[in-house]
Amino acid sequence: MKTFGFLLVVLICFSTNAMAAHIRGGELTYRYLGAGTAAGTSNYELTLKLYVDCSARGEGQLENTVSFTIFDKLTGQVNRILGVSFSSEEWIRYDPNSNPCILNAPTDVCYRLRYYSTTVTLPDMPDGYTVAFQRCCRIDNIRNVSGNSGDIGATYSCDIPGTKALASAPANSSPKFNPNDAIAICVGTQFTFDFSAVDQDRDSLVYNLCNAFVGGGREPGSCFSCTSPAPASTPPFDQVSYSSGYGGSSPLGNNVTIDSKTGIISGIAPPSVGQYVVTVCVSEYQIGRASCRERV
């Protein structure tokens, strides 16, 4: 069983507060490319999807190169640090007239989905690896985060399984979540949102709402002096502190749940206007891989 997470900022109605040009969410995945040239090694493609506010400007917020840290899962020691180049991006906009919940927005709701990708060859280890990216800071005024969210960094990570679980376990690709956008929903209304993922190995997927993690920034346990620490802090990563009434398993309150089989989030939106962090984890269970073939 391997678990992968994704973080998204949900717009409940639209907050007219100024939004800092920072991180809105992200996802780190890997894809198995085949055996390496050396015996007992595997090739992977590592990809970061980073959601950034459209007002972000300059190398300080729109890096051309970011750092991935690969940890040996058994010891927690750094195996290597990779400099990963920016590859492409999408601009995603919501016109204020396109959704009744954002009619009063002074400008378009907009963010940039930026991709960073690299390849790496790793020895097949019994316990596998954790790959992590950390960056400060999140956007300001996230409603369900305690304190000033603009001072809090984020961690996005994934686990590459080892041979202890199964000899063929390293020949695995992580699930990828389907949605590439945020969601704007009206205060106190019924809603549904598809947060499902696909798995190219056709493994069984199970979903749950889970904790977001800090990394970089000024939260306890994070890197106080750097915006994108290299190496990243050692797993297990520290959790975000949530505002009263919210948590990793209830990021939109107790009236919103996720279907563990389908990844559909549904319920009644919170009663307060603002932006909310939602993190979904998907656990991957291998089912008859020998008989099946091979898609944030």
Total strand segments = 16
- Average the pLDDT over all residues and give the rounded result: 83
Main sheet makeup: 7 strands, antiparallel
Count of runs of 4 or more consecutive helical residues: 0
Evaluate the radius of gyration.
19 Å
Largest sheet, spatial ordering of strands: 2-3-6-5-4-7-8
Strand content: 35-45%
Shape: globular
- Low-confidence regions: 1-6, 13-21, 288-296
State the assembly state of the protein chains: single chain
Helix-strand pattern: EEEEEEEEEEEEEEEE
Distance between the termini: 18 Å
Could you say which structural class the secondary elements and strand pairing correspond to? mainly beta
Short summary:
This protein has 296 residues and is mostly beta strands. The chain has strands at 2-12, 23-35, 41-53, 65-72, 78-94, 109-123, 129-135, 154-160, 176-177, 184-185, 190-194, 197-198, 204-209, 256-258, 264-268, 274-285.
SSE arrangement:
Blueprint: E1 2-12, E2 23-35, E3 41-53, E4 65-72, E5 78-94, E6 109-123, E7 129-135, E8 154-160, E9 176-177, E10 184-185, E11 190-194, E12 197-198, E13 204-209, E14 256-258, E15 264-268, E16 274-285
Parallel strand pairs: 1-10
Antiparallel strand pairs: 1-16, 2-3, 3-6, 4-5, 4-7, 5-6, 7-8, 9-12, 11-15, 13-16, 14-15
Fold and architecture overview:
- The chain is an all-beta fold and 296 residues long.
- The chain has strands at 2-12, 23-35, 41-53, 65-72, 78-94, 109-123, 129-135, 154-160, 176-177, 184-185, 190-194, 197-198, 204-209, 256-258, 264-268, 274-285.
- It has a 7-stranded antiparallel sheet, with no helix packed on it. Strands 10-1-16-13 form a 4-stranded mixed sheet, with no helix packed on it. It has a 3-stranded antiparallel sheet with strand order 11-15-14, with no helix packed on it.
- 43% of the residues are buried.
- The model is unreliable at 1-6, 13-21 and 288-296 (pLDDT under 50).
